[in-house]
Structure formats: C-alpha cells, structure tokens
Amino acid sequence: MNKKDVHQQCMAILDIRVETVQNAIRQASESATNETKSSAGDKHETGRAMAQLEQEKNAVQLSEALKLRAALNGIDPSEVHTEANIGSLITTNMAIFYLSVGLGQVKVEEEEAMVISIASPIGALLVSAKVGDTISFNGKEIKVIEIS
Predict the structure, then answer these.
(1) Domain residue spans in the chain?
(2) Are 55 and 25 in contact (CB under 8 A)?
(3) Residue 105: CA atoms inside 13 Å, Cβ hemisphere, count?
(4) How confident is the model at residue 55, as a pLDDT?
(5) Could you give the angle at which helices 3-38 and 41-73 cross, rounded to 10 degrees?
(6) How many CB atoms lie within 10 A of CB 137?
(7) Percent of the chain with pLDDT over 90
(8) Which string of DSSP letters, residue by residue, matches 77-110?
C-alpha cells in the first residue's frame, strides 16, 4: 500500500464531506427562506426554528470537516519516517494504520487502512514506535512490520 494513495483517498473523502455539508447548508437556507414566505403563525415559527437548528448542525459539521482537511493538508505524504509519527503509514501484523486524522477505515485499491489520529488510543500507542516494536492494545500484541 502506498502512503501517497492513502493520503489522496483521505483528501477525496474530506472534499466530498465538505461539499455534501455545504449543499445541506444551502438547502436548509433555501428551506428557511421558503418557510418564511409561505407560512403563518406557530407553524411558521416552528419551521423556521427547525431550519435554524439544521443550519447550526451543518455549520458544526462543516467546521469539523474543514479542520480535518486543513490538518491533512499539513501532512507531506512523501516524507519518509523511521519511527511512527503524524504522516506515517504503519504496517503491523494486525492492520495498516495511517497516522493523520480520524477518518476510520479507508479502502485504497483492494487494501484497507485505518486512518487514525495520534489522539486515538491506538494512535497514542503507535507514536514513536519503530520497526520491530510490539505494542499491546486491548489484550492483543501488535508488531510493527514497516513504517513509511
């Protein structure tokens, strides 16, 4: 598995997430505008309040997606690591991990990688690991096979 491909896939996922939330914000805004034009009384207030809540929820999601994308943008996938750190692709006997942002499982070609942050429990254990090191996580021994 190639680190640049994993990084690119993560960027694509975040780009789609940002675009999806931006579309949802646009639709909620249009819905609120239409609600204002066509309703009266209590129904109007309820509809407007619901649209406002939806816009706020979407704004939070957009903010989070933009933060993840900015953090991922700050990682140089061509940088080679000898010990695990942010931007490392770590192959273990259990799974492949990309230490960057918390996106979960990402498929690249026919392989899967767990895209995790260093703040995650396993990410915190992997930081500073070297090839040949073994870490214990949830009662399982995880051996570091390769770091790039």
Answers:
(1) 3-73, 89-147
(2) yes
(3) 6
(4) 82
(5) 160
(6) 14
(7) 76
(8) TT---SB--TT-EEEESS-EEEESS--EEEEETT
CB atoms within 10 A of CB 73: 11
Phi/psi-derived region of residue 104, left when phi > 0, alpha when psi is between -120 and 50, beta in every other case: left
For residue 106, give both structure tokens.
Answer: 């990402």
Q: Are 121 and 38 in contact (CB under 8 A)?
A: no
Q: Please spell the DSSP secondary structure of 17-30, one letter per residue.
A: HHHHHHHHHHHHHH
As a whole number of angstroms, the distance between CA 27 and CA 8 comes to: 29
Please state the separation of Cα 40 from the chain's center in Å. Answer: 41
Question: In the predicted model, is pLDDT for residue 112 greater than 90?
Answer: yes
Asked if 66 contacts 18 with a C-beta cutoff of 8 angstroms, the reply is yes
Using alpha carbons, select from 96, 36, 106 the residue that is nearest to residue 126: 96
pTM comes to 0.85
Contacts of 80 (CB under 8 A, 6+ apart): 148
37 band by pLDDT with thresholds 50, 70 and 90: low
Of 5, 148, 11, nearest to 70 by C-alpha is: 11
Token pair in block for residue 111:
């392989």
Both tokens assigned to 62: 């957009």
